[in-house]
Amino acid sequence: MRNLQITHWCHEIICSQAPKGGFYIDATMGKGNDTLFLCNLAGESGHVLAFDIQKEALRMTEALLLSQGVRERAELILDGHENMGRYAKPETADVICFNFGYLPGGDHRIATAADTSVEAVREGLGILKRGGMMSLCIYHGGDTGFEEKQKLLEYLKKLKAQEYTVIVNEYYNRGNHPPMPVFVFKNI
Fold first, then answer.
1. Directed axis angle between helix 33-42 and helix 6-17, to 10°?
2. Which of 1, 131, 174, 181 is the most exposed place for a label (fewest CB within 10 A)?
3. Closest Cα to residue 128, out of 32, 44, 14, 35?
4. What does the pLDDT average to over 177-187?
5. Rounded to whole angstroms, how far apart are CA atoms 43 and 45?
6. What is the rounded distance in angstroms from the CA atom of residue 43 to the CA atom of residue 20?
7. Stretch among 3-7, 42-46, 90-94, 104-108 having the lowest mean pLDDT
8. Are 127 and 90 in contact (CB under 8 A)?
9. For helices 114-127 and 142-157, what crossing angle results, to 10°?
10. What pLDDT, in 10s, does the model give residues 32-53?
11. Closest by Cα among 140, 141, 162 to 149
């Protein structure tokens, strides 16, 4: 059986939809696993932007990309994901990935927040190409995660169906607030 953890599931969906050699954004770089995945999808002709507010995340991601020989494919940016519009032009990204929550193994007091996360998704939708997709892994336990999940889902529910297709998934038989994979497709 294939791995059905949230990030692997999201990667499977991305691979089924995204063109190779494109422009991708990892809006929440963390330890760099999504950045590495996107760099491999980008190949030598594509490009990746990756964002995080923690220097430790950039350090870990850079080390991972160097160890895999793909460092030149990504621009690592120490800034909040809500500011991605400063670095990418409208309607240019093929894929944008988010992992909401905190840096695994890091300081749990430093986590994504409802207001900036909704703003980042709004910003990202403007950067996304027609036919592009956004992947959101919503980890919603902890002090602020429930509010963040609620605000993100409220925002996504209001997107115009003529412009976007939003698919919300659940790990239906798992307890303890399992993560929620969400996919947003910008209609052609």
1. 20
2. 1
3. 14
4. 88
5. 6
6. 7
7. 104-108
8. yes
9. 40
10. 999 999 999 999 999 999 999 9
11. 140
- The C-alpha angle 138, 140, 141, rounded to 5 degrees, equals 150
Q: Which of 39, 50, 96, 40 is nearest to 76 (CA)?
A: 50
Going by C-alpha positions, the residue among 14, 8, 80 that lies closest to residue 46 is 14
What are the distances in angstroms from CA 180 to CA 37, 65, 72, 187?
20, 27, 32, 22
Confidence label for 1 from pLDDT (cuts 50, 70 and 90): very low
β-strands 93-100, 23-26 pairing: parallel
pLDDT band at 26, cuts 50/70/90? Answer: very high
Write out the two tokens for 28.
Answer: 């929440």
Instruction: Give yes or no for residue 163 having a pLDDT over 50.
Output: yes
Q: What is the pTM of this model?
A: 0.90
- Tokens at residue 85, please? 């519009």
The average confidence (pLDDT) of the chain is 88
